[in-house]
Amino acid sequence: MTNVEQGIQSQLRNIERTYGKTIEELVRIVTSSGLTKHGDVVTMLKQRHGMAHAAAHRVSLVARSRQTPPAKDPESSSDPVLKEVYDRLMEAASSLGNDVESSPKTGYVSLRRRKQFAMLQAGKKWINLGLILPNHPPSKRLESAVKWNALFTHRVRVATTAEIDRELKTWLNEAYQAAG
Do both 172 and 89 map to the same domain? Predict the structure, then answer.
């Protein structure tokens, strides 16, 4: 268990001790409220249950993670074509430098240098490549990521290995360079 995971577990134990309810009971309160937006849940927990902001924030995150089915992990794709696309995208990212770190998350893989510059997430028909390229206007292929994932500026849907071309590798490299 990492230090971050240990810290979260400690925070959850403190929440249970401070508010006299298990995390499962608090998640049921959130679920039964019918609220789904993070801010609304945090406000409700603070107002109705007297929770501190940090505690309400953590309970909201736990409740949302349990309510939302995780996205498909790109590494475990059963589609051989998408698995090959994923492998080739990882090769392209790894070839950018020996400081590229891949960090599996729930449903996606984060690509980092000093900070995150890209991510890979499996879809049904393609691998989503999220990129942080603030100075690039969106195009047909380099879509705006505003409605998809607020942590990224752009998304490229990659369905075949042929789409991992010079243009895509240039975008990936630019995101990598900006993260260093």
Answer: yes
